[in-house]
């Protein structure tokens, strides 16, 4: 029987919104800390470790069903040391025990519920269990009794099994490829593209069947191949291009996209992108923005710009702290009901926007009396506005204006509803993705708001989320930063700062990126086998030290290291960073070959390493003198071109590292001047605005149209 429990457990002083959601459970939860781990040893009790996150629907369900149940809580409190972990705060713990559950059961997910010996070694685990047995699932009460019986009465076997699992976790923590690993070549990239083609849904867009997740990094990789190999025949260039455009279009048309407030939900439960799992994550929206920016630069189609802008505006409006840092998540549920905030009844729409436009609006957004989701409507479109208007002999631009007014009215009404829960903790790795997206869009759209947002967030991370010795702290909330940074905090920020530098050319970002790269090598590198560990050499010692090359919902720290370090090396003419990147890509090469769906960011890094790269230096007397040249440069999709820009009137921040690159280079005749370099060797400079713009066009033409040998017939 469930009763309201007033007593606060040991989570009451935590900062994580997810942990605080459980502070009044009758379960005597501890956070993962020395006190709880010592208590397990002192009392010789097994540990019940439950891992989840604030936007996890089934985590909420299990909390209400089991962790608020007095009888289950009594059994847990008397026999186990109970520990709650926010996977977003402690991905290191989550990785280890998720790997154990997947090894034991073949699949994992959240909530992740595992049973450990007092030495923190895994002996049993799973995901969601109902409180009592149902629909073929054992009840949580049965699971507790069984795991306790094993610990008490089969202790020797439990300890032996847990030792073997720990040994397995340390051996299989993706330490990179075999000693004789070969760096991926062009053929490996083509084979990866074919594998992605085989998994693609050419009717609805996306990879695989339902549920459908965005795979933004894979789309970015495919678009790079389209640009790089116009002569590609297997798979054909047009096929790859249509995969990217269809996927981006269908997602932005579907219910997974918020047609009123902008931004994408986490995933779609169906194959049509119609019904989302309604939580909105900072990382998805950041990664998808980059995909839409890439496609806009590639195609110049304003549709992609609109989606990217609306997504970033959602982040700025709903996921941004007054400090400029970005929050983590908006929940799927409001008032305890999934999606309630987002869905509509037809008569509600009619009353809000007026009968004159309502019929056409509801027709376009597929709104009906009976609804498309639990007797309500998720707004979605199934064709372009132009096509819809043409069929009805309406003026598309006039219709767009009327729809925009209608959407603004609906948004005003929606904003009066109870909003979903907000997870307002700030995570460096997710903020890095958002900074990258804001900076890319700021440059591509010539939009100062986005550049300013990237600058403000970067400044916050570098000033407020560091230890006294300059090392990063992973999470911040309510004025407090804590928990030592993980690999993807460092490498994500390296990429973000380099991207921001190539947007605003503030040289302090490069100095900070180099510091982070040096700290990454000093504390995370595996000098013996290549690549980088997920945790630093001075991190809390857990039962395994994982080295992960595989993307999950966010890019892997190793793939970000490969991406950032090679760009840093090319910008600064420092080969040691390029060599580091090459070693990481080689260490991750078997993943590229066997599971490209899990290696999107590593494929991007590998393509960058294999492609012809250009380093551009742009110099001029004033910021104004270089603006048109930069505008021309940013109108092209040139992902593997790095840019250094310095003007004589901007003396605020000067980096010695940039000084070294610019040694011997100057603005000629007091005019904008362009140096085009490859492999640290520069051609004769071009000066004068018209000549520089012509040179940029010629370079873009050469990069875009370069006919390589025909591969993949």
Short description:
With about 725 residues, the protein is of the alpha+beta class. The chain is about 50% helix and about 10% strand. The chain is globular, with a radius of gyration of 26 Å.
Please characterize this protein's 3D structure.
- This protein has 713 residues and is an alpha+beta fold.
- It has four domains: 17-171, Glutaredoxin, CATH 3.40.30; 186-335 and 423-610, Glycosyltransferase (Alpha/alpha barrel), CATH 1.50.10; 342-416, no CATH class; 614-705, Glutaredoxin (3-Layer(aba) Sandwich), CATH 3.40.30.
- 50% of the residues lie in helices and 10% in strands.
- It has 27 helices and 20 strands.
- A five-stranded mixed beta sheet has the order 1-3-2-4-5, with helices on both faces.
- Strand 14 and strand 15 (480-484) form a beta hairpin.
- Helix 4 runs parallel beside helix 6.
- The chain is globular, with a radius of gyration of 26 Å.
- Mean pLDDT is 94; it is low at 706-713.
